[in-house]
Design brief:
Ubiquitin-like (UB roll); 3 helices; 5 strands
C-alpha cells in the first residue's frame, strides 16, 4: 500500500495586535478549509467565521475548496472596518476644508 504524500503549508491569521503563522503538514489533496480546521487556528481565534471570512493563498483570494500545493500559505482575511473609498473621500474633504481655512 502506497503512503499518502504530505506537503508543507502555513495557515496565517492576523489581528492588529497579534499575528500567528502555523506551519502544518497535510496530505496532497487537502483543501483550504480542511487545512484551516486542522491547524487549530479556529480554537485559538473563535471569532473566525469560515462561512463569512474570505481566504486566500499569498494575498490572492481563493475559494475554500481550493486544493493546496506544497509551500502554500493560507491567509484568513478579517472584514474591513471601513470602506476604503469612503475613507479616501473623507480625507480629501478634510484636506480641502483645511486648505480653504488657510486662505
Amino acid at each position: 500500500m502506497a503512503e499518502a504524500k504530505n506537503i508543507n503549508i502555513e495557515v496565517a491569521y492576523a489581528l492588529p495586535e497579534q499575528q500567528v503563522i502555523l506551519p502544518l503538514q497535510v496530505n496532497v489533496g487537502t483543501t483550504i478549509v480542511q487545512a484551516i480546521e486542522l491547524s487549530g487556528v479556529l480554537e485559538q481565534f473563535p471569532e473566525i467565521d469560515l462561512l463569512s471570512s474570505k481566504v486566500g493563498i499569498f494575498g490572492k483570494a481563493e475559494k475554500p475548496d481550493t486544493e493546496l500545493r506544497d509551500k502554500d500559505r493560507i491567509e484568513i482575511y478579517r472584514p474591513l472596518i471601513a470602506d476604503p473609498k469612503e475613507s479616501r473621500r473623507k480625507r480629501a474633504e478634510k484636506k480641502k476644508a483645511q486648505a480653504e481655512e488657510t486662505k
